[in-house]
Amino acid sequence: MMLKFVARFVHVLLWLKVAVSSMLAGVFVAAVICIFRDDISTSVIATFSGIGLFIGIVWAEKIRRTIGLSNFHGRLIGHPEIDGSRKK
Fold first, then answer.
1. Among residues 72, 70, 71, which one has the least CA distance to residue 9?
2. Which one of 8, 45, 86, 87 is least enclosed by Cβ atoms within 10 Å?
């Protein structure tokens, strides 16, 4: 029972990791726009954050339904360029 709860909690965290990464990209774009406009606009930040979150939710659901979140993160973590091992 407890192990199933922990597994679901980890699964939710992996889903949030994918969804929030797109939202952070939206916040970055909004920050760049605010810098160029020389004005901090909360509506611009909220709009781009919302767009990024929507894209992230769609992306996380697509990953969850097709290859699985743990498989997706396993491929990212096990990649040779990220892992540090090189072929010579």
1. 70
2. 87
The number of helix segments (H) and strand segments (E) in the chain equals: 4, 0
Measure the CA–CA gap between 87 and 83, rounded to whole angstroms: 12
Q: Where are the domains of the chain?
A: 18-82
Q: Render each residue's pLDDT in the chain as its tens digit; 88 residues.
A: 788 889 899 989 999 999 999 999 999 999 999 999 998 888 999 999 999 999 999 999 999 999 998 888 888 877 777 666 666 5
Q: How far apart are the first and last CA of the chain?
A: 47
Residue type at 35? I
* DSSP code for 39: S
Interhelix angle 69-77/2-37, nearest 10 degrees: 70
